[in-house]
Amino acid sequence: MSLEEFKNRNVGQQTYKMVQSDPTPKTGKEQFEQVVRRAFKGELFVGLYVTLREMINALFRGEMHTIKYPFEKLPISPRYRAIHDMLRLLESGHYRCIGCGLCEKICISNCIKMDTRYDENQRKEVSEYTINFGRCIFCGYCAEVCPELAIVHGARYETASEQRASFSLFEDMLTPIDALKLQQEYDGFGAISPNADQNIKKTPLAY
Amino acid sequence: MEAAVLPEVTSAGVIIKAIIILAVIAAIAGFGTFIERKVLAFMQRRLGPMHVGPYGILQLVADGIKLFTKEDIVPQHSNKIIFKIAPVITAATAFIALASVPVFPDFTIPQWVPLLGGVFVPSIAADINIGILFVLGMMAAGLYGPLLAGMAQANKWGIIGSARTAIQFLSYEVVTGLSILAPIMLVGSLSLVDFNTYQTGGLTSWILWQQPVAFVLFLIAGFAETNRTPFDLLEHEAEIISGYATEYSGLRWGLFFIGEYANMVTVSILAAVVFMGGYNDLGFLPGWLMIILKIAFVFFFMLWVRASWPHIRPDQLMWLCWKVLMPIAVINVVITGLFMMV
Amino acid sequence: MYEQIAFYLFSVLTIGLFLVTVLSKNLLYAMTSLAAGMVLVSGFFFLLGADFLGVVQLIVYVGAVMALYAFAMMFFDATKDTKENNTNGSWIFLLGGLTALLLVMMFAAPIFSESVVASYPSVEGATNPQNVGMVLFTKYLIPFEVAAVMLLVAMIAGIILAGKKMDHSLTTNEDNIEVKTLSKEEEL
Fold first, then answer.
1. pLDDT of B242-290, one tens digit each?
2. CA closest to B320 among chain A residues
3. B86 CA to chain C: closest CA distance, Å?
4. I need a labelling partner for B240 at 20 to 30 A (CA). Which of A194, C32, C115, C122 fits?
5. Architecture in CATH for domain C1-81
6. Where are the domains of chain B?
7. Domains and CATH numbers, chain A
């Protein structure tokens, strides 16, 4: 790149397409001709045609673009980071969380608080788990760091509520036990990639 | 139409007709808002109002309840009496103009109806022989609604709105009058019934084919006089908030609205009767259906244009009126006169 | 009977409205009542069967002349009352006397009305506008044409008066704003 080009800061102007407008009329005669030309060119009718075409397309060819929002919702990306979900194991129905505390540790806004204890089988049990959604910035680190894909980001983006606490308890985020069959495997942030099987190689320790 | 066959028009019939016009046109004007919202929505690939009633038909009722129950605000420093009168003028002139226009077919109330049995209800409430001029005159008087509203409200947007009312309505009245003068010369009468009888010969006898220029001019001027979109500078939201209606709320604003839609209906009826064959039968289609179809088409055309075309600037508006439309209208009248003399 | 009721109603309303026009100190009231009075005057024409003249009264006076008054009123504050100061008493005396004389003549008119005969009785079977046209283009052709020429002169004079300084901008104090207006109209 030469210095000349480098110093040209009018970036993008080179590829702009200039609209060819008619030359500015100078005399009254030219002005008159321009008006007549534009009046009879039928540009106005092109406008009418466009709106009518859109109306026919919308009415009869199913191109209506309205989503009746509270009743219909657009699909959102699996990578969308909304209110968290706590998933269950599909086989036993037990929650996936093993109480490792990684999410609490990594949370950069310090909004996850968890407490664990040993239950009667000497398994770790989550005794208390809350997320302070007043602080949560929905960064997604907790979902990324979770080794069990237990805490994930769900699709609940309508978070208007009388108090934020209504979303934040472990039981609120946990998949209801009767809706276990409806539980979707999370393929968003931190999940295993779809082609994970092909990416598996022998670990260096195997030899 | 043989006038001799028709029964005598009594005052009871005229009063019934007036009530019918008032009720039905007010309802149509209200319904027009629904149609407008629907058509504009479809043209933008939206659904429009959908939730109140099936397909949102009862949206009109919801809007009405909202307007009726809204707080009626009269600004502190306004001229209160004029402020309150102005919306009534708009609505009243719009409906008075309909008095001399054939709106529905005539009929006789059946005998079994108590009190009113056998009363003949004419198709025109006031069958004066200068109907078309009367409509133009009433529409000219209609400019006082926006004008006084803007001047009474002690608001600068209102003043600008009423100034634009004065120039726009005054200027385009000239075009309306001149454009409609050519068909009047052809028919040789100012009565809308004569216009109708002139065009009895089917599709080819429509004045539209003889006077295409006058028709286009009349439509353009009609848009300007009913304050429709390419020319709705009186309440151009982007420039002057709401123009003359800035300070109005609730029912008073609703009266302006009804007046505007009633005016649209009037212009549609005029275009249908004067240029598009009136209420004559066309082939197998009966006359009453034809007139409704034509009125509906002109009404739809107004909405269609609103969806398609942008506003123009006030100076372009005046330029268009005085330097383009008026000379064309005058030339049209002169040429028509020459053809009639030859 | 209807016509009599209508006549008295119109009379009372017209006189009342025009009184408001004269006596009100508020410009907006004066203008509104004058316009409303004009509408009611056209009612008299309708009562007399002169539909055409009634509508012309509506279009010309209500639609055009009064709207021009209104347009001039845009330059004043319409919501304030005007202060009138009248120093010349002799004018009031003269005008009052003339009005009284006019009223006397009007009330005396029925006495002589029997001898008044229409010199151009309306043609039977002709419609309203046709009657007006016949009179205008036969008996009163010259006054009609003179009036037309006068209007034309007034129009040309108005255009010249208004157009004299059109090339001079009041806001920028620049002469020759022709270039700017050209570029504006080019966008049309």
1. 888 888 888 888 888 888 888 888 888 888 888 887 777 777 777 778 8
2. A35
3. 10
4. C32
5. Up-down Bundle (1.20)
6. 11-341
7. 13-60 (no CATH), 84-191 (3.30.70.3270)
